[in-house]
Amino acid sequence: MSFTPQFFTTAESLVDSLDRKLLVVLRDGRKIIGVLRSYDQFANLVLQDSLERIYVGDAYGDIERGVFIIRGENVVLLGEIDVDVEDALPLRQLPIEEILQMQREEAEEKARKDKLRYRLLHKQGFSVDFADNDLY
User: Fold this and answer.
1) Res 9: pLDDT
2) What CATH architecture applies to the domain 11-123?
3) DSSP 78-110
4) What whole-number distance in Å separates Cα of residue 76 and Cα of residue 134?
5) Cβ neighbours of residue 100 under 8 Å, at least 6 residues apart?
6) CA distances for 34 relative to 9, 48, 62, 97, 113, angstroms
7) pLDDT tens per residue, range 26-57
């Protein structure tokens, strides 16, 4: 008797990820890394030894979060992290204060460019929506 793998789209497919290191991308854009300890039928997750990782360019910084509970509806993407490959990535870790400053500067630059883009579009007759949406 041969075994045919089955693919599930429900929360039960998380069973193979228990006690493994995962990266979870949330609706608000945050990236949480931690060890999956528990989940339920709604894909609510409990991560242990978690941290929030902030990427700016080729650098990143980590904020320790400890035990982190994530409501399933806030999960956009999750995947297992290969710890061997993670250590070999060409990214440099910086102190969190430096990363947060770089993130603020990047957000200010994006806002400046968006404002200019919106102004140009408006001059050409396009309606511009200035509302901040989560797009989900």
Assistant:
1) 57
2) Roll (2.30)
3) EEE--HHHHHTSS-EE--HHHHHHHHHHHHHHH
4) 12
5) 54, 61
6) 22, 6, 12, 21, 35
7) 999 999 999 999 999 888 999 999 999 999 99
Rg (CA), the chain: 19
Q: Are 44 and 106 in contact (CB under 8 A)?
A: no
**Which structure tokens are listed for 111?**
């806002």
The answer to whether residues 47 and 30 touch, using CB atoms and an 8 Å cutoff, is no
User: Domain residue spans in the chain?
Assistant: 11-123
Distance CA 30, CA 24 (A): 8
pTM of the model: 0.77
First to last CA, the chain: 44
Dist CA 94 CA 2 (whole Å): 50
Any idea which residue has 């793998």 for tokens? 5
Sign of CA dihedral 97, 99, 104, 109: positive
Is it the case that residue 135 has pLDDT exceeding 60?
no
Question: In sequence order, what are the residues at sequence separation of 6 or more whose Cβ sits closer than 8 angstroms to the Cβ of residue 55?
Answer: 31, 91
